[in-house]
Amino acid sequence: xxxxxxxxxxxxxxxxxxxxxxxxxxxxxxxxxxxxxxxxxxxxxxxxxxxxxxxxxxxxxxxxxxxxxxxxxxxxxxxxxxxxxxxxxxxxxxxxxxxxxxxxxxxxxxxxxxxxxxxxxxxxxxxxxxxxxxxxxxxxxxxxxxxxxxxxxxxxxxxxxxxxxxxxxxxxxxxxxxxxxxxxxxxxxxxxxxxxxxxxxxxxxxxxxxxxxxxxxxxxxxxxxxxxxxxxxxxxxxxxxxxxxxxxxxxxxxxxxxxxxxxxxxxxxxxxxxxxxxxxxxxxxxxxxxxxxxxxxxxxxxxxxxxxxxxxxxxxxxxxxxxxxxxxxxxxxx
Length: 334
Hints:
Number of helices: 15
Order of helices and strands: HHHHHEEHHHEHEHEHEHEEHEEHEEHE
Radius of gyration: 22 Å
Structural class: alpha+beta
Strand content: 5-15%
Oligomer: single chain
């Protein structure tokens, strides 16, 4: 049976009106009355109540429920707050999968959507934008003093400058469960932290706890990813190569839905023992070993994403990162 047209309209509002699976996800989240409310947005509660012919108290209760489910977002620029639906697929994905009462069939439907539809959507999205929405940041130990290290290149600086910090479960591994890498490792910063704490989908953490989580993620082979702009970084995801929205389509299909960092790995030949450990840590096939006797590891700068994971386990400390792109590579940077 086809979904109710109202849920198809909601899917269309986030650019996926052709996806029956997305419409069904909306249907699992919102009952008939809540569907009418969602389609009445953006609006504040009194205005929405007037549109629907309902009491403001009843509309507020529905709004509170939809907020917990990740379907509505308040703007406190107005008084009373103006509420709106998800702006796009990424926001819909990341917010709703953290719904505390999400049943397994809901998460399974998300997995089905990602398996069956996401690749083609990502390909279209990458062709329609000049810069990806996210970018990789190097591991915390990766950047040598000789490089031009700026605050937006450093996970540590992002954490140290934060007003508010929280950690949530990784929405991708929560729904895809293709690996057993750490789950509670997605760091939320400032406004994103406030949002997740208000919903009960995250827990407050200290700067030291955040640093410990970053180190745990690096040791587990997770790639740091943040929003692709030079300031206002409101999350640091820690991504695996098999569950993440961005990594599999990049690794398997070359679809650039995530930018590299400003750095590339380089090999100090005299320190390299050609042990091959770095090959296992590189998801992007950027490192190879020469076949001739005495050959060392070699890095293809065109394939290297500058994540720095190869540095973590190099027994000879033969790898480092060097600056390969100007600060202006980051949108908004001078």
